[in-house]
Amino acid sequence: MAAFRETAVIACSGPMTLAALEETRDRLRDSLNAAKRIEVDCSGVTDASVCFVQLLLAAGTSAAGRGIDLHIKQPVPAALRDVLERGGFVGKVGSACDGQEFWIGEP
């Protein structure tokens, strides 16, 4: 059995829409099997869809079930922040929603 890496960083860039998520899904799945902590770096995301948000939520749930810390590297880019606001996952800048700490690191 291979030893777990301490941290895996998953860099996401370009459009994170349904057509482009397969590679990101595979990298997340592989990291869930190989690391104790996963950081998702979305700084290069230029467009995002709710499918990307769903993928990250599913990865977060899987990670929590395995005792793995999964975090979204801060700050999230405007393209992702817009989808998160429109979907009700985070409040507009300055307001809070339940559970938004997963997305923007705020309680």
Automatic annotation (TrEMBL):
Pfam family, one: STAS_2
Domain STAS: 1-94
Listed name of the protein: STAS domain-containing protein
Upper taxonomic lineage: Bacteria, Pseudomonadati, Pseudomonadota, Alphaproteobacteria, Rhodospirillales
